[in-house]
């Protein structure tokens, strides 16, 4: 990467809900990447803000009998407290309800007007006569007009997958009041995104602005047809910014929320004496957005279109992550796995979660599964057993002498880990934190092997071995410090403690390249303790609460919604509900990732007939006369090889597949094809065409192992 200055954002959390462990996937991921950039000496700022507008905020404030601004202030304090508790270090954390955002919205709106992209038309919507507001899709329930399933939301049916207009629901009712909605018309303003189609196709499909699977998804689902207009206004009553050239209409929250990135930057610039244009209107600035896949559509199509017609810079990269599950399931209140950040902090060290997420995060749009037993084992085994123990077992022997003044013979261990620093840096740069952690742990294993061989606890018993003891501890503590430099983006508190132990703060990545010599050593104090399993149980028990007795909320559906539920907007719940999303709680009326209807049930006996095996792709090549097929050679260990034809051409490049682990249906009957015989089938998810995601085990799995 060039040395241009970096402006980094995470999606803005909605001000009607508290931060939970799902949100933290994104903020921890971004914070690690930003801390790495700063440790490398890059000019980098991390910007975020509360997303504050919309009907949900208005309704909740009304129910609580307070002004919207009072609600926003209360939630802002809660959000900043929770983020600080997890050591997430924003350079500025603002609010979209600010004058800077109002001015920038008006500026960009005028640019869209000048480009001929704004038009208006009458829109028929459902209106709640008791609450006195038009109803978004998630605030309406009724019977599906296609399959007649009851209690379906206003955009699509969970049972049959049919999409419809809310006014087509049978017997609709408002989830805000229970009233039967009326159909009313109102003027709405639209952005004609299709005018930017050619640009968006070129921008999303070239360069590396997006991950390949995201670019393929956009090509297969949106860019192959005209882009639908974007409804960017809401009639009064609405909490937000009134549109100056359309009195009585307000910018929809999804218009002003991404502009909030800019507004929050402007606030930071005012505080720091910086020039706003030097960041957002400067080609030398690289803008990186970290978001969840549920808000892909807005960030990769609408937002670039808005920026292009204005004078501001387009994102250099939009890095997209998957959802969080807990123990293989979506977060659940009844099971106690929907855990607020504040609840976690009452019981557990945030270092456990930061490290666990880092060990799981890859550059791909993969979902992340949190298993508390696994988290505890990683914390105890890796952080305490392999890393901190390097210092705890050796520091006490050199408190009186300090480190040796010259570098002892270490068999090349320090030099080897120093050379690997480039690979670790490349992994961090690519958001492949999983790989970075694996490389760091390999260095920790070598360091522990050194300590085990040298046995400083035995040397300490022999006064004649004092010099050798100092040398061994000097090597061990420098290897420890080198590892902590590499882990500093993930575990900033541990890096601070290491600086205090050895009297030299960790300030730069290059601190890993040169050992400390002749410096004093403080008495060792506990850095990270082992995980208290009872604390995990207590945390889950505190988080456990009955599920709402009403019909499923918008956020408990398979399709990841982002704004709060009806119960919350009525003021009865002061926290966001169990959403599978790990990203922000932004409005998501047009969520692009839709769940397919489930197939008919099978018995356990049916399923046990399938032999699933881990396999490694050792060769991948194009099948010239086939439109969708690649020929894969798979290894199941030893000389056990299979040839499989997979319909993933155009989604994956053959050269990118070599070395990847996949799941093979090993006992599928061979199938003769025009191009050869396919000896099995690999598993993938997605509706097909441009959106296919290969399923894979964790990196530690071995070819040939049975998948249970």
* H/I helix tally: 21
Strand order of the largest sheet: 3-2-1-13-14
What portion of the residues fall into strands of 2 or more residues? 15-25%
- Tell me the total number of β-strands: 25
Overall residue-averaged pLDDT value: 89
The assigned structural class equals alpha+beta
Poorly predicted runs of 5 or more residues? 548-598
CA radius of gyration is 28 Å
Helix content: 25-40%
Distance separating the two termini: 41 Å
Biggest sheet character: 5 strands, parallel
Mass-distribution shape:
globular
Describe this structure in words.
The protein has 708 residues and is of the alpha+beta class. It has 21 helices and 25 strands. The strands form eight sheets. Strands 3-2-1-13-14 form a five-stranded parallel beta sheet, with helices on both faces. The protein has a five-stranded antiparallel beta sheet with strand order 19-18-17-20-23. Helix 16 (466-487) runs antiparallel to helix 17. It starts with a strand and ends in a 14-residue tail after the last strand.
